[in-house]
Amino acid sequence: LKNVMLRAEYPYGFSPTVSTPAAFSDNNVWSLGDLSPGATKKIQITGRLTGENKDERTFRFYIGSAEGGAPAANFKNILLCQISRFIYQLLEFRNEHNMMEFLRCQ
Fold this sequence. Notes:
Layout: E1 4-9, E2 14-20, E3 29-33, E4 44-49, E5 56-65, E6 77-87, E7 92-96
């Protein structure tokens, strides 16, 4: 795959503080470059989540490819998505995903 991009949609109350590697755009878009079959990439996102005890929060992650030859924040070709839900019980939340865990978008 060429020009692979990852976009995160954060729930209300989540503020990202740092990610490794750094985001390409708006603290929620990463350029993963070209990926050969079997290749993996790791992105670690750390942030602060505010809410009430037992609030449910949903994080959405989309993988797609940028059109044309350059990375773009608004990629259109969605290849995979992951929806992560959890019950709020912590002041800080850290979420890591292996690209192999992503599901096909419905």
